[in-house]
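Progress report, Aim 2. The chain analyzed during this reporting quarter is listed below.
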Amino acid sequence: MTKSPVRTRKPDWLRTPLGQGPVFGQVKHLLRDLRLNTVCEEASCPNIGECFSQGTATFLIMGPACTRACPYCDIEFVKKPPPLDPEEPARLAEAVRRLGLRHVVITSVNRDDLPDGGAQQFANCIHKVREICPGTTIEVLIPDLCGNWEALAVILAAQPEVLNHNTETVPRLYRRVRPQGDYHRSLMLLRKARQLYPRTYTKSGLMVGLGETWEEVVQVMQDLRQVDCDILTLGQYLQPSPKHLPVARYVPPEEFAEWRRIGEAMGFLQVVASPLTRSSYHAAEVHQLMQRYPR
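Predicted C-alpha cells for the chain:
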C-alpha cells in the first residue's frame, strides 16, 4: 500500500467542532461540582466536544498530575502527587448515576509513588460504581503498575468488563516516546490479565504519526494478538503544544481503514481505527461486543 507524503499542516479530517449545547455545559458543571477530573480535559482530547455533548466522559482518578513525564502527553508531571482521596470512588459513582451512563471508562495517571500503583483505588472505584449503578458496565484503562502483577490481580478481582492498557507506540520509539515504559512489560500485563481473568475483555491502543513504519504497526498488532488481546484502537498522535513531540506524519483515513481490515483478519474482536480515535472513543459500543462474543 502506498503511503501518503509527510504533512506539516493539520488536514481537514482532523478538525473537530467545539463543544457546545446544554448537555456539554451540564457535564462540565457536574465534574466541577463533584471535584472530578477527566482525561478528556487533562489530555486535551480532540473529541471532548462530541463526548461531553453526548453526556459521556472518561474519568481520571488519583489526581490530574502524573509521576511520569512522557513527552507526548499533556498531563502535568509531578514527582510527589498528593495523597489519594478516599472519597473519590463515591463521587465518581455519583457522577455515573447522574449522567445515567450504561458504560463508564475509568483511567488514571501513573502513580509510581504508590506501592500498588493505585490498584486498590481502581478496585474501590469499580466496587462503588457496582453498588450505586449495578447495570453499568465498567472499563478500566490502567498504567503498567511497574510490573506488579499482584496489583493487577487486585484490579481484576473487582471484575471490570474491560481491562485496557495501551502499548502507545512501536518498540523502536519507546525510548523517545515512552521513556519510563517498557514494551514487553506492557505485553506481559495484557497476557497476565488474560490468564488471571479469562472472562475480562482485554484492550490496547496505539498512536501513529510519531515516525513508526507501516510494518512496525502491523508487528505490534501481531504481538497483541499473541497475548490474546481482544480489542484494538488506533488513532493519530496530535502535538498538544510546541514543547511536546512533533507530529512526524498525518496519517490519512484510508490507512486506518486498512489497519482495521488487517486487525479484523488477525482475529481482534473489535478494531476502532480512525484519525480521531482515542482509547475510550465510542467505548460504549462494548455492549454490542459482549452480545456478539459473550463470556
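Residues 40-44 have pLDDT under 50 and may be disordered. Residues 198 and 241 are 40 Å apart (CA to CA). These observations will guide the mutagenesis work planned for the next reporting period.
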